[in-house]
Amino acid sequence: MREPVPALWAGIVGTGLIRAGGTAIGLMLQLYEARIGIPPQFVGLIGVAFYLTELTGAPIFGALVDRRGWRPFMLLGPLLAAVAVLLTWLTTALALTVALPLLFVTRLLEGLAVASNTPATLSFLSAASGGNPNRRARTTGAFQIAVIGGTAVGGVLGGLLANQFGVNGFGVLAAFYLLCWAVFLRVPGTLPNQPTAQAHPNPLAVLRQPALWAFAPAWIAVNGVLGVWLNNFAHQLTLPCAAPPTAQLAALCAATSDQLLVGDYSATSAGLIFAGFAVVFSVGMLLWTRILPRMRPSLAMLLAAGGGLLTCALITLINRQTAAAGLPVLPLLGLVGALLVLSGFTPAALSVLMELAERNAADRGAVMGAYSVLLGVGQFIGGAIGGVFAAAAGVNGLIMLTLGFTMIAGLCVIIYRQMEPRPLSFSQESQQP
């Protein structure tokens, strides 16, 4: 099958834009919550509320993709997200007692947007990349770079919108989502040699695959790490410790006064820190796209878990520095290296799921719905528990929880490695002259 390069790039660029919007709203929401004094426990819960609809909606949307095609659901995602952002903007004019439950609703709607768009996009990318291992590695790497690169752009975008427009930045972000929708318009509805749609898709059938569940615990644990930091770190950075709005936050600021990464960072600084992490991840994934075709995914994930342990140690060292001493250069350089290694986990995991999709070509949407389910479960757990750990110990609490998730992920990969199936692409490649 001829590679539909323009359509592939539309799917990848659209993914980057929609991820940028998601990160921007997440960051702006945390800044807004810090300004009005919402406790960390509620911050974590509000941040992960959208995973409830993502993980329940993704298998259903994935099955619908197999029945009706990917394009309608790729287009639906940005529209639902735009509505969610507009409702978030509305909460800024309401009393806190009314705004809090409505914020939960907006996050649920945002999760529905992701549940619609992600399985559809991954189904299209899986079909367009075919069974060629090198093309699949490039596609999965480009997708993950779009995800992390979008996160980097979103961190900067969220900080800029918050600084320039305040709460009115939510309205500007709604227009940004319409740009995402326009990009996804370039994705075709069908491709040559596409399997016939199922008449009666079963959204849960794919979840009964033994290979998927042998791999699932590690993927959940790693996404728990992402949930910890994406939903809680910006709030910790920007806590108004110089003038805490509540007694609870004043007590937290006093208890974490020796932590460099807690309190009084500006919105722009928080966005740039997020962007820096994301840029390093993007570079790491670009390097991993060259390595993955020559390596078993389980080995790549084990190496990445080792990078995660080193990352925890280095962030702990940085967080112990005093503000007067500034950021230590050597630990920062070491952190960059550790993050480059850690960045290999998500493209390796996605290659496992794409391999499963090739084994079940008629159920690509359902397989990629499983991607969102497992991602949602992990990030929901990490974000919610992360809020509790942050309330107890600040960024040190986030580090301790990350260490636990990383160790669980490494152990689960070791178990999965004993039953890892031989990739179809390897056997296909070996038959070529």
Please report the total strand number as a whole number.
0
Shape: globular
- Please state the structural category: mainly alpha
Helix content range of the residues, please? over 70%
Rg measurement, Å: 21 Å
Mean pLDDT: 81
Order of helices and strands: HHHHHHHHHHHHHHH
Contiguous runs where pLDDT drops below 50 for at least 5 residues: 196-200, 425-433
Main beta-sheet annotation = none
Describe what you observe in this structure.
The chain is mainly alpha-helical and 433 residues long. The protein has 15 helices and no strands. The protein starts with a helix and ends with a helix.
Write the layout of secondary structure elements.
Elements: H1 5-36, H2 40-68, H3 71-91, H4 96-129, H5 133-165, H6 169-184, H7 210-230, H8 233-237, H9 247-255, H10 267-291, H11 297-319, H12 329-342, H13 345-359, H14 364-417, H15 424-430
